[in-house]
Structure formats: structure tokens, C-alpha cells
Amino acid sequence: MGIDLADFEEQTSQAVRAFWDTRAAAVERQRLNGVIDQGERAGVTSGKNMDGFVTLLADLVAANGLPDAELYMTRGVNTLPGYFRPTKDWDLLVMHRGVLVAALELKSQVGPSFGNNFNNRTEEAVGSAVDLWTAFREGALGSQPAPFVGWLIHVEEAAGSTRPVRVSEPHFAVFPELRNTSYLQRYEHLCRRLVLEKHYTEASLIVSTREGGLQGEYGELSKATSFRRFVVAFAAHIAQEAALLR
Question: What is the DSSP secondary structure assignment for residue 177, as one 8-state letter?
């Protein structure tokens, strides 16, 4: 495998730093232009917050045997057919000689509206995966091996994401492991279950604070959902496909 895990740590720190730098720059641009978005929206309207992670993953494609792969991350060319809807745009597609090698979703969430955003992210993640795999089953991608399908989310570590949240149980009990959990813990469970149910090949949760993130500091909740595990599995899939597609 061509991945250098020592270099990977530094690249991940750079991606986290770029995430927070980009958010801050977007807010400042809007302030200077006299445009004010409500809440945290000002930091996301640029649409480039996760570009550092996209670059890291794109570099892994070349480093692990597919330097001539086509990488698509721009609206209009990062589109795949769906089954329940005509198409879906993915954050990064890796194609090689007409074969879909990987489809990746890279999401983020910062405060203060962790509750509504968590529910939306959950529905999006499950829906996108079910749509893609059903389309794959029905032959929408032609006759090819199963691609690597990955889901990565970067969540702010803050009071709103770390404190336990009560749940309403008016009729039936929720699963015990989901009761009185924080939103970070819920994202951890989500990532584990997305993989357990084979919706995604790997799913990862990265956490960082605003202050630490600007210094490139980040953390994880478990090795099972760590970004290292995600990257190693992705690199291994690329290397395997490189060997088979030669």
C-alpha cells in the first residue's frame, strides 16, 4: 500500500485547520460585504469547508496505484444514478476506465443547531446509501464490482454536542444505548451502524473544537470510527482495484 500514515496524520491536521480557516474566512467576507447569514450559515455558504479532506483522499488514489484515475468533485460531473430518484451528487467520485471505484460523502456540522442537523444528516446518509446500492443492484452502474462507498463527518466538539440529550418515549422505548446520549455519541452510533448494516464500506467521525481546530488538533470517539481506519480501508480498496484493473 502506498499510504504513509505518518504523513497522513499531518495531512489530517492540515485538513482540520483548513476547515476552520475556511469557515472564518467566509464569515469575514460576508461581514466586509455587508451580508449577514443567520446563525452558523455564514460559515458554510462558501461550500469549501471539507476541501482539505477531499485533497487528502484524492492524493491517496494516486499514491495507492491509480495515478490516472478520474476524480470528480464538481457539480454536474460528480453525479450518479439513483433508484428512488433520478440522480445524486456525491462529494467525490473515483472512476477508472469507466468503472466506479469509490463514491464518498464528506459532511460537517457545527453548533448551535445540533439536534435538527443530526436528524437531517442521518436521513441523508441512510437515504443516499440505500438509493445507490439499490441502483447498483438493478444494474445502473453496469457490470462491475462493488465500489467503496464512504461517509465522513467532521463535528464540532462543543457544549451542545457533548452534553446528554433526553429523548421522548411516549409509546415505545428507544434502544438503551441511544438513551440520554450526546450528539457526538449519536454520530458515533450512526457511523457504526451504517457500516454494520452495510450501507457504507466505512464511516468515520472526526471531532475538533474551534480553538484547537485552528491549530490542527482533532480527536475521535473510537478506533472503529476513526479517520485512520477509514483511510486505511480506502487505500486498501484503491490498491486492490489498481491490481485488478491493470
Answer: G
